[in-house]
């Protein structure tokens, strides 16, 4: 670990505690799925179908980005529950990772503040 992650004081201790608590329970969900699940309605194009007049057929889809390109995967209705759970697991993981990095940013800010108070060549 570099020097930049070692600010002192209560706020720093709290940020560090939060970070390590997160790191302890963060586990990559191996079956996690990217993006988000949504429901759309599409017309099948058959003139005799009820959808020609109405809302269209419901279709669940998983939308995600792959290297800057938007991808859409149609999801069978009976898969929706499981896919939703896998999307949620991946989202929680991403949020957790984001929190870790935010805690690091807080520590970086504190370190900067604390260094500012010290004499330039006094290092501990
Ligand atoms: Zn139709």
Could you please describe the fold and organization of this structure?
With 124 residues, this protein is of the alpha+beta class. The chain is built from two helices and three strands; from the N terminus they run H-E-E-E-H. It has helices at residues 10-25, 80-117; strands at 36-42, 57-66, 69-75. It has a three-stranded antiparallel sheet with strand order 1-2-3, covered by helices on one side. The structure holds zinc ion (ZN). Zinc ion binds at residues 43-44, 46, 49, 51, 57.
Q: What does the average pLDDT come to?
A: 91
Give the overall form: elongated
Summarize the helix and strand pattern as letters: HEEEH
Major beta sheet, strand line-up? 1-2-3
Helix content bin: 40-55%
The beta-strand count equals: 3
Largest sheet: 3 strands, antiparallel
Radius of gyration: 24 Å
Q: Separation of termini?
A: 15 Å
Q: What is bound: which ligands? A: zinc ion
Strand content: 15-25%
Counting helices, strands and paired strands, the structural category is: alpha+beta
List low-confidence stretches. Answer: none
* Helix segment tally: 2
SSE blueprint and pairings:
Elements: H1 10-25, E1 36-42, E2 57-66, E3 69-75, H2 80-117
Antiparallel strand pairs: 1-2, 2-3
The structure holds zinc ion.
Zinc ion (ZN) binds next to loops.
């Amino acid at each position: 670990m570099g020097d930049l992650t070692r600010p002192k004081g209560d706020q720093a201790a709290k940020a560090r505690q939060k970070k390590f608590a997160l790191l302890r329970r963060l586990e990559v969900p191996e079956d996690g799925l990217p993006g988000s699940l949504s429901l759309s309605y599409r017309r099948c194009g058959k003139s005799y179908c009820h959808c020609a007049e109405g809302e269209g057929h419901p279709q669940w889809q998983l939308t995600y980005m792959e290297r800057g390109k938007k991808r859409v995967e149609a999801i069978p209705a009976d898969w929706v529950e499981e896919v939703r759970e896998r999307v949620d697991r991946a989202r929680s993981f991403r949020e957790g990772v984001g929190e870790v990095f935010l805690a690091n940013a807080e520590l970086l800010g504190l370190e900067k503040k604390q260094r500012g108070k010290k004499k330039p060549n006094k290092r501990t």
